[in-house]
Design goal:
127 residues, mainly beta, OB fold (Dihydrolipoamide Acetyltransferase, E2P), 6-stranded mixed β-sheet, two-stranded antiparallel ribbon, 8 strands, 11% helix, DUF2577 domain-containing protein, DUF2577
């Protein structure tokens, strides 16, 4: 059985021979902590986390955003003392924090960019 380094070298040589500095390959997430990856073209090779980079949108993360909306809803129910209503026309949230909980899961099918040299595997999206 070939070593991990030999398999990386073989993949890199194939990419260079084909004139492609980046090769797109389908893969499957094998584990998430730490993240490991199996490529469709070689299902015996499991890529360890040290060689994997994941696009931010595929990780749980927080972003700051400004959210503005006109006509956000109906008139509120009557309440209060004295009883009254509020007609909300618009809403603005400045510096709102949005939590994206889109972490990869074991078994997710992903598109991987294999960088020339075979030392980096960049997970660019899932499908």
């Amino acid at each position: 059985m070939a070593s991990l380094g030999q398999m990386f070298k073989k993949m890199a040589n194939e990419a260079v021979a084909a004139g492609n500095p980046v090769q797109l390959v389908e893969g499957v997430i094998q584990s998430t902590s730490p993240i490991t990856l199996k490529l469709k073209q070689n299902d015996k090779l499991i890529i360890p986390s040290d060689f994997i980079h994941v696009a931010q949108h595929l990780k749980s993360h927080t972003r700051t955003a400004t959210i503005s909306a006109g006509s956000v809803g109906e008139t509120m129910t009557q309440a209060g003392d004295p009883e009254h209503t509020h007609n909300i026309q618009s809403i603005n949230l400045n510096n709102a924090q949005i939590q994206f909980a889109s972490a990869l899961q074991t078994g997710d099918k992903v598109m991987v960019a294999v960088i020339q040299g075979g030392q980096s595997f960049f997970i660019i999206d899932k499908f």
